[in-house]
User: Fold these one by one.
Assistant:
Number 1:
Amino acid sequence: MGDVDLTVIDRNDRPLSAVDPAFGSAVKSLYEDEFGIELITGASADRIDTTEDGVEVTYRDQTGETGVTAGEQLYVFAGRTPNLDGLSLEAAGLEDRAGWVTDTMATADNPRIFVVGDANGREPILHIAKEEGYHAAENIVATANGASTAPYEPIIHRIVFSGLSVYPFARVGHSESSAKAAGFDVVTATRQASDDGVFKVKAVPLGLAKLVVDAYSGQILGYLGLHHHADVFAKLAQVMIETGLTVEEIPDRAYHPTTPELLDGLLRETKATIENR
């Protein structure tokens, strides 16, 4: 199979629109400069026509200007919704609405009915569904025994295998904006992968990473990475965040030039910022 020319129409201003703009801009540049993909952002399709050679899409941007792009094949990624039709929820006294499943996985209408996975509308991710299942089972047993149920409150843990998985994106815990919205006063540090020579040696010099830390306690609140092995870094970030470690508690030590030195730099910078406040 030969090379494929690809054009993407995205209604958002940039990819990864839910996190810091720098990461979305980096993904856009990555795909345009390294993979030759045309990204048309801030636009939506108005019309799709078939042609002798395939399809033609007419799109409109946020200013109202229209454009046309053509191709042999069209793929539409429109998101997904739980397939609840046909389950007759009303027969069980349930109504699918915002907040219909509580944080204990029990339904708001009937605390003896528990819902996990895509159906509850919380996090449509397989690994989250598995954890919800285990947690719901524990709460079912607690309910049967007349004991209190516990909420399921996982930290955000998202991986996008962008850049042909060479440059994956990972977010664990808070972004800067979500931490501030949650009431934290934060300090952050951002480093480019090119700041550490090991990424250049491995011929993967692109990308960046960001650490979000509580400005007073030094507790690590979140990690965002768009770089080689960011998906692997996510596990280390999960351990630091879920155990409540602070930047003071992480040894400032590197045994050999390796990609995690990117994280070492973030830890040193946030630690210094806190100490100098």
Number 2:
Amino acid sequence: MSVTGILAAAAAVLAAVVIEIYREIHCFRVTRYSLSLKKLRHLEKEIRIIFLSDLHNKVYGQDNDVLLRAICREAPDLILIGGDMLVGKAGIARQPAYEFVRQLPEICPVFYANGNHEQRMKEMPEKYDYSYQDYREKLKQSGVIFLENESRRIMIHGMKLNVSGLELPLASYEKFKKQRVRGTDVAERLGFWPGGKNAAATGADELQILLAHNPAYAEGYKEWGADVILSGHLHGGVVRLPGIGGVITPQAFLFPKYSGEMTVEEEQAVIVSKGLGTHTINIRLFNMPEVVLLTLKKPL
């Protein structure tokens, strides 16, 4: 091939990549997972759970009407939020996240666990132009249930779900560092220990769902005894490679084990959302934003 041909081919590839990046930061999809665990053996009817994470004030359509309609079409029994719905940065409004989230309880019960953006606004309020406390209280008035190192039980279709929202120290999000998080650390934060990573084998009927924003510490969450772990934070690894997964984490670690998929290991599932928005690095490639629909089914 001539030099001119090589340059033309390179230009075509570059143009295709740019178009794909543009598409992926302006569109989203619904990713559907089905999960059957032994603990679900008494389930009377499948449970449909919508999981949302890392919206970062993104707006799809007019006032997020496109996103709301997509969620309604899935007819969820429960909506779980894994954090970072807004952007914790001075000078950036909270309104897009607030206006979206406040409408969700009209669909079904909503539980909200914080990500690092909400958490740092809560712990360092002097750095921000508006109050996290005000954001939380107004959403609570709309019916949103916040889980800040707290748990809430709910019965759906004959199944007891215990949903916990975990907040680890902000140091656990620092770049170039990874803390050690054990099951005992999770238990200390949440105030209870459901039985360790082999809890599923005990035959207990209560399904432990853990909302834990950062999937880097999934081994600790499993050791604690979570049956279903729902995380986000990584934005799918920014770029995803076929057969490999996400490339880089916000803490600058390459090729994380969990980055934007469902992984089932014996009787425990780790589900990581690729998120719905971006911030700072406004790039996605082979990494479509997503709403996650998790359907819990009775095992055959």
Number 3:
Amino acid sequence: MKDFNYFAPTEIVFGCGRVKETGALASRFGKKALLVTVPEFPAIAPLYKRVKESLAAAGIEVCHYDGVIPNPTTEVVTAGTKLARSFGADLVIGLGGGSSMDTAKAIAVEATHPGTAWDYLHYTAGPTEKTLPIIAIGTTAGTGSQTTPCSVITNTAKKDKSAIWHKNIFPKIAVVDPELTVSMPAPVTAQTGFDAFCHNFEAYIAVNSNPLVEIMAVEAIKIIAEYLPRAYNNGTDLEARSRMAWADTLGGLTNASAGVTLPHGLGMQIGGHCPQVTHGQALAVQYPEFTRFTWRSAVKKFAVMGRIFNPALNGTSDEEAAEKSCEAVDRFLKKIGLWIDLKSLRVTKEDIREIADCGQVLGDYKNNPRVATIPEMYDLLMRCYERV
């Protein structure tokens, strides 16, 4: 066995109804909390009220920053940072999907360090232990941000989507309450759920994978294959929601240790250049071509995945199961409404050229079993442009 390290310091508070414990959990870290969310809308308003009431009951003063947007930008982070500083926040609570949790992490950095969060990206020394404590409460099941040392932000001026990746932004506590995901619309359920699959599968096949990651990833893939279609078709199926919340959490733990591969690196560039494309869409649009590009370089692991999605492959050779895993992923994408192409996402051929040229800015591509060149990235993306 190869040498490896595994580090996952986040306390996980898992279970239906456990969001009510937010105040008691937050009281460990101070008396002033910055709550970071998207703007309030009717479906989410009761949750915001419950969290604020829990915090108030624990004697915690709350300042609510509701300026989060999908693909959060450096401007969004700086606006939240100004509130955190003027309020004197002791901790930051990210409540929502990956965008809210990532924004909360970036604010926790920028509020306590010189410059901006952008100055502490993955290729720098990163933020120090001065970073404010973070509590992450997810309302989607896919990003895994509640258990990762990652905060994804976009610099619109540079058309660059990148990330802080450092142990000091691991949330202190992750509250994983499956009940909070019940109100997710079907398209969001599909996009975030497929992201959970990508986190786990890419960590599983990654060059940096390890035995612990492999165990967790395979378990998560099994859950997603069975329960994501159920959650997609019936949002009130609490068993499916609970299983997906666990698979999502596993995805954070696997990603935190082994990282992700080619689709995430390219997906970040798609989001940076074309912010109308969600992260889940940016991944789903690539996967039919990504699987065909990569399977020969990780036959045994693609075979495992193929047999999970298509048990009829259990009696076949690894080679056949791996090759046919590509078709199994295609069918799965169709089942959850994510059989999409770049053209329908309003990504132009000119955009594709720019995206491919930036495809090696992030190091995720090096973690793929087959390392892609810029021309290969361009060819892969062009084959995603229009799909029948």
